[in-house]
């Protein structure tokens, strides 16, 4: 039972004043502005948009500033703001094959139409601290080269042609929205993918890693990883015409996993899917691996009782706002709950002591 | 046709860099009379993806949108559906949409829409040419034991 507490207003107000001061830090040092955050801490901004489930860079940067860089607190602020927005509608499903790619790689095929393009990546850096960044504002400029502006087809579509990989065919079911309807297990894949896309990066990374280490036994390759801008199409209700209402950056990962075949279908690869806002490839890869491990029933695989196969476990715990809300609430006053526990333990001890004296 | 390529100009207005669009509009210094049909409101749309890029739809997350509608007279309406939370951007988009249906079409097209198209194409070219410079040709080496 929850019993409210009263009082403490002055302490709370003063605590918040101090929070405000400490957020500002040393006043002799220039204050961060929102554009500096959204331009220079882009991957933090992307994470807050992805897990906050709202694509808006300025808001995300504001949330990061307000939360003193605590990204989960920032995600919390984004989620809270999101709930105040009237929902104007739903977009047409995006066409990631038409993505304006900054990066596009495949770990399964080296020669692919559209080629491998590394983009602005940390891969192949030496992970040595760059002390030049301490000193001056110098930076290297990106190189440019002539290009063909051709659509870059998905790598897995080539395997598809040979029938070597399981096809992703729409069932015609409309997607359920977990922000509008409470979820009931078992879930549809669309509900799982929505949950994973806004799920906690760290949690999903840990689960994905567990599948690689053998807890779910499905060895994954990154069939394709791409990051870039996708046009979001939306039908204007007053006009009945579709426009490109927003340009949104996504990272998409398609994993290729080990075979599945039956008497009717010869052996073929299976796949997992990751799609997230922003340039968050660790998250996109993790999402694809966890999506795949939760599809065991669909592919007639054995349930090994591991966490990554258990959708109820994964989906109920991947949301960091739910998790932190419940976790952090235990630091708030629980005096009455605790008082009753205290009374109980005293009573038990009293009885124990009485019994001790008797013997 | 009255609505020819309305999708196109609405798309460029919707995804325009807000500061750029505002500066283009303010430079025109046009005084336009209008009535609100719907004053600018901030909201969101849910973006849908497809499982495995080709399968069932699913909801990825929302994107902020501002919209408004106005009319110049009883016949001509403009709708400003734009990305982000800038009410002024939304109003400019609605005014441009309305004016594109009038004899002012040429001015708006030349001074705003064409420039937005150019701006977006330049951005696109910049990304494509930088991406191209990071193109790799991996090759696998034959290892000794494979001989």
Question: How would you describe the overall organization of this protein?
Answer:
The complex is a heterodimer of chains A (359) and B (147). Chain A is an alpha+beta fold and 359 residues long. Chain A has 3 domains: 9-82, no CATH class; 96-318, no CATH class; 333-358. Chain A contains 13 helices and 7 strands. A 4-stranded antiparallel β-sheet of chain A has the order 3-5-6-7. In chain A, helix 3 (42-52) packs across helix 5, helix 4 packs across helix 5 (71-82) and helix 9 packs across helix 10. The longest helix of chain A is centred in the C-terminal third of the chain and has 24 residues, at 335-358. Chain A is globular. The model of chain A has no long low-confidence stretch (mean pLDDT 93). By secondary structure, chain B is an alpha+beta fold. Chain B has a domain at 7-39 and 67-120. In chain B, 41% of the residues lie in helices and 27% in strands. Chain B is built from 4 helices and 4 strands, in the order ααβββααβ. Chain B has helices at residues 6-14, 18-28, 87-99, 105-132; strands spanning 35-50, 57-71, 77-83, 135-136. Chain B has a 3-stranded antiparallel β-sheet with strand order 1-2-3. Chains A and B meet through strand 1, strand 2, strand 3, strand 4 and helix 8 of A and helix 1, strand 1, strand 2, strand 3 and helix 4 of B.
């Amino acid at each position: 039972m929850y019993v409210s507490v009263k009082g403490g207003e002055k302490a709370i107000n003063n605590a918040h004043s101090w929070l405000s001061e400490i957020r500002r830090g040393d006043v002799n040092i220039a204050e961060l502005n929102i554009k500096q955050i959204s331009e220079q801490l882009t991957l933090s901004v992307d994470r807050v948009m992805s897990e906050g489930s709202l694509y808006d860079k300025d808001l995300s940067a504001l949330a990061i500033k307000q939360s003193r860089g605590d990204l989960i607190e920032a995600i919390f602020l984004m989620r809270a703001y999101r709930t105040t927005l009237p929902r104007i509608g739903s977009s047409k499903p995006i066409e990631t094959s038409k993505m304006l790619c900054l990066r596009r790689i495949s770990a399964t095929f080296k020669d692919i139409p559209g080629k491998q393009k590394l983009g602005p990546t940390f891969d192949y850096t030496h992970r040595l601290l760059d002390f030049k960044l301490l000193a001056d504002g110098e930076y290297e400029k990106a190189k440019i080269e002539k290009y063909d502006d051709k659509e870059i087809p998905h790598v897995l579509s080539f395997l598809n042609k040979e029938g070597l990989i399981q096809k992703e065919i729409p069932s015609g079911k409309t997607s359920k929205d977990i922000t509008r309807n409470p979820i009931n297990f078992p879930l549809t894949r669309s509900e799982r993918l929505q949950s994973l896309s806004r799920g906690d990066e760290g949690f999903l990374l840990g689960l994905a890693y567990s599948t690689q280490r053998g807890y779910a036994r499905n060895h994954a390759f990154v069939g394709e990883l791409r990051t870039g801008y996708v046009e979001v199409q939306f039908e204007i209700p007053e006009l009945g015409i579709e426009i490109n209402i927003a340009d949104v950056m996504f990272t998409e990962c398609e994993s290729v996993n080990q075979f599945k075949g039956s008497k009717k279908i010869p052996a073929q690869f299976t796949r997992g899917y990751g799609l997230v806002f922003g340039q968050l490839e660790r998250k996109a890869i993790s999402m694809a691996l966890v999506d795949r491990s939760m599809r065991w029933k669909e592919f007639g695989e054995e349930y090994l009782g591991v966490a990554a196969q258990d959708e109820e476990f994964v989906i109920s715990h991947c949301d960091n706002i739910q998790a932190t809300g419940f976790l952090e609430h235990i630091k708030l006053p629980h005096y009455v709950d605790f008082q009753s526990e205290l009374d109980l333990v005293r009573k038990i001890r009293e009885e124990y002591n009485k019994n001790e004296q008797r013997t | 046709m009255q609505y020819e390529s309305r999708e196109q100009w609405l798309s460029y207005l919707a995804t325009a860099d807000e500061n750029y669009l505002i500066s283009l509009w303010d430079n025109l210094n046009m005084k336009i009379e209008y009535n609100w049909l719907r004053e600018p409101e901030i909201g969101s749309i849910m973006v849908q993806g497809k499982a495995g890029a080709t399968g069932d739809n699913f909801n990825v997350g929302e994107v902020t949108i501002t919209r408004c509608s106005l009319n110049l007279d009883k016949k001509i309406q403009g709708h400003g559906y734009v990305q982000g939370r800038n009410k002024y951007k939304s109003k400019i988009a609605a005014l441009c949409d309305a004016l594109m249906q009038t004899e002012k079409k040429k001015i708006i097209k030349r001074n705003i829409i064409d420039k937005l198209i150019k701006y977006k194409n330049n951005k696109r070219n910049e990304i494509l040419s930088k991406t191209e410079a990071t193109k790799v040709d991996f090759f696998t080496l034959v290892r000794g034991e494979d001989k």
